[in-house]
Design brief:
The structure is a homodimer. The first copy, chain A, is an alpha/beta fold. Chain A contains 13 helices and 11 strands. In chain A, strands 3-2-1-4-11-10-5-6-9-7-8 form an 11-stranded mixed sheet, sandwiched between helices. The C terminus of chain A is likely disordered. Chains A, B: It is an enzyme of class 2 (transferase).
């Protein structure tokens, strides 16, 4: 490719606020990030939104036509097969045919995952992909990736081990943790704690020399910053993710309700406006973009269905970071045992093979 | 009994801050609540603390001697059998021999549960007891009971159904919800969502006429106030509980850190002191006491190991509420199918049988 701009396919039709908010986020991304966007969707619905920005053509944005969308009420597999030209299918094909390097979608997450599996396939060595979510921690500017947050329930121990491998690569190269620490979400610190899958996963994670496993992480460790990667079954991960998102909103509500009470409260709250804005940024989940679908042979970001422009923008940035850091190439090498997490030799010395 | 004061056995030796903070909480309870406390522990360690309150004898407090304590590092069953006079064993015996109506312990929670099972036995119809935790919700003065938060992992569907029965009775009579709404913690609203146990539990809960089941609760519903009772496997419940506790602390830390920044920040924060105190009360888990061990034949409150006096006081209040509301008698009737959640006829017309 002549340009170093990352090429990202965005599903313009997926999500509660599609296509308007998706397009707003995408336009902002073309302006502020080094990205070219392929906006996949129905041109008749997309063009009026593009024209609001002064023109229906944009230097770094191209519309790729698709027909229909997988509805939230649809069975993913049935929908994907019935609507072959649905936006999520077309977006995945952009990556498959190497016209794009990543996909971002805020549509039906089950359908996004199924489309990725069908069109891109799994990475070698990964039996079941996981959705990774990035959480802020108590330590400023330090985040943790939790996987899986909803792709699989009833995980077996070996799946949790594979999540550990993927999380390690992602944390090291995309999040820039030189010395990532991996934990297993569990109900106690001791290796004997937890359900059957957790007890067995502890053994596998500990025995795997490629994984910098430091032990069990409890619920409180999600935010402690003691771990860079936390692996768990998709059931518990999903509950924690949705709880965490709600907690941020509840806290902001409590602040809005309690702070301005009384005369001193009103005055104090007025004085604190900029500081409150910073707090909102630290606890608001919209600031954190979307989940990364790890384990398929391509970069896919699955955003929240409720995503508005800032979330879409952040999801595109997440996709671009993954492209820039050659996540797929690195994962392939790592899964093939060709890369040691303690050295950087493999990938940087050879061109990406994707 | 001649008096209506509830008689509560408190394990003075269990917990990180035993016996000092336990005793402080117990003394406050005798002063502010209608309770008589049996303080179970080593008199040599207890008496100096009691004397700080002016006297080693107190009208509503009696010391019951015990020997030793189950350490956090001990295997519960081994410890309980080896140390027959350990404080938790002696405290349970107070209930078994009807000298007390409830037990409160902040010691090793596994040991507390095992001691309750060994000494008091299970309620008829309950295969495995659960620990219920009471969470505040977004709606002021409305709380939700989540069970199980750590007694059992790998729950089967019928255990979740039994949790639904117990939660219903607890919510209605102790928390005073006339029309309790029961939910199943899951990763989506549809009955087809979740792991095998959750899918089957949905069917059982829906089919059980004694349980006012309204459907699946997602992670965000823990705090929404849409549910009064949420049932889940102890693995996920424990993770959510510990996450929630930590989140409260993290939020308070963020407030402490961000609010006073800058000159306006300092002034504004000073003005907001009383309002911030109210916020702390709403998010601080110490305000919420302890977990209720439901399904054993006696009232047991399992408090957090880190409990200090306010938590101990709140745990005793929780125990007293359960005693006053004849939770065990009601549970027995309910499990025997003799009581309909929609009527109040059974218990109130007959004296407690325990």
């Amino acid at each position: 490719m002549g340009s170093t701009r990352a090429k990202i396919a965005v599903d313009a039709m997926g999500g509660d606020h599609a296509p308007g908010e998706i397009i707003n986020g995408a336009i902002r991304a073309t302006e502020e990030l080094d990205v070219d966007i392929l906006l996949v969707g129905d041109p008749e619905q997309i063009n009026p939104h593009l024209e609001r920005f002064g023109s229906s053509t944009h230097a770094h944005l191209e519309v790729v036509p698709s027909e229909g969308v997988i509805e939230m009420t649809e069975e993913p597999m049935v929908g994907l097969k019935r609507k072959r030209k649905a936006s999520i299918n077309v977006a995945m094909d952009m990556v498959k045919t190497e016209r794009a390097e990543a996909v971002v979608s805020a549509g039906h997450s089950g359908a996004g995952m199924a489309a990725a599996l069908l069109r891109l396939g799994r990475l070698k060595g990964i039996e079941r992909p996981a959705i990774g979510a990035i959480f802020p921690t108590q330590i400023p500017n330090k985040s943790v990736i939790i996987l899986d947050v909803g792709a699989i329930v009833d995980c077996r121990a070996k799946h949790l081990e594979q999540f550990g491998l993927m999380g390690t690569v992602y944390s090291k190269y995309v999040l820039g943790n030189n010395d990532p620490k991996v934990g297993l979400l569990n109900i106690g610190e001791e290796s004997s704690k937890g359900n059957e899958a957790a007890i067995r996963a502890y053994q596998l994670l500990e025995a795997n020399a490629q994984i910098p496993f430091i032990g069990n992480a409890e619920g409180r460790d999600v935010l402690s910053g003691n771990f860079d990667v936390i692996v768990c079954d998709g059931f518990v991960g999903n509950v924690v993710l949705k709880f965490a998102e709600a907690v941020g909103e509840v806290l902001l509500d409590i602040l809005k309700e309690e702070l301005p009470q009384g005369l001193n409260g009103q005055l104090g709250t007025a004085l604190l406006k900029p500081n409150l804005k910073r707090i909102k940024q630290r606890v608001d989940h919209a600031e954190h973009g979307g989940g990364l679908l790890l384990g398929v042979d391509g970069i896919c970001i699955i955003s929240h269905g409720s995503s508005q422009a800032p979330s879409v923008y952040n999801a595109i940035r997440l996709a671009k970071d993954a492209v820039d850091e050659q996540v797929i190439t690195r994962l392939r090498s790592f899964m093939a045992g060709k890369m040691d997490i303690h050295s950087d030799s493999t990938v940087s010395s050879q061109p990406p093979q994707g």
